Input
Amino acid sequence: MPDLSAIPIPRGVPRGHRLLRRRQPVPLTTALTIALGVIWIIDGLLQLQPSQFSSRFALGIEMNAMAQPSAIAHLELAFGRLTATAVAPWTVLIAAVQLSLGAAMLTRRARRFALLASIPWALAVWALGEGFGNIATGFAMLPTGAPGAALAYALLATLLILDHRSRSDARSRRDFSCAWSALWLLAAGLQLSSRVPLSLRLRANFNESAGGEPALVSGLDHRLAEITGAHAVVATALLAFVELLLACAPWMPQRGLKLWFATLGVLVIFWVAGENLGGILTWSASDIGITPLLALIALGAYDTRIQSRPHSGIGRVHSLDSASTRWRAQTPTASVDS
Output
């Protein structure tokens, strides 16, 4: 739908009609970019926590080498040793880049450049800081953060750039839908094709999430580890079914805000019970987790675009376009009469 704010308004149009340009909704692409920028800023602020200036920063990177193939393990250990030699400079550098990316996404002129720059940065974080989402370990599960939040940052930025270039709602929604389905099909594949015993993987994921958490949260994690470990086949089948259902959601006939809110409910459960709010309660988290990024991708995948409407008190005859047309039509007549 055309943007009424770009239409010139003649002086004779009443003030109520002028307010139409203020009533136009923010384009979804712009809203998602701003939301992504806010998340980058939050991540940058999390990077400035006192724990990130200690040896825990390098240790967290080196822990990604556990159960990895030798090539990835050597890469993680090498980068961990590198950051251990100068923890504070590395921490400040990472925080500065993330804060800069987030701030640039909030400004109109630098928005596209920030999206482009965020893609290689996010992929570097995914490889060096997250160990490629631990996909190769066999323990990765989307409910506990796989395939990595940084990968979702890069994916969302790519989708937003494609949306800027295409300027087609249908094509943009298709791109978001394909990306959304691919993520959840990957999640289901990780859930069903692991070489690690189901019980061991479920217990390991939830018990690892409990590390450093408050007593209430860690108690919930240990309890989930016991329940899912005791009923590993049922738990795995249920998670895989939910993930496959979410993969099909954008292609359902009835899609929109209602379906998005239903999906959001599932994501909240994963974020709280699986990711522990991204681990922010441990005061050592470097991001808020993958789930908020999935919620943003879902907004683009589902048919959530709300068409702008005229003001309730202005009918079609009194619309801005009609007023502008009448004004132009009457102008020659007025000049002749004068």
The CA atoms of residues 261 and 295 lie 9 Å apart. Residues 169-192 form the longest helix (24 residues). The chain has 14 helices and no strands.
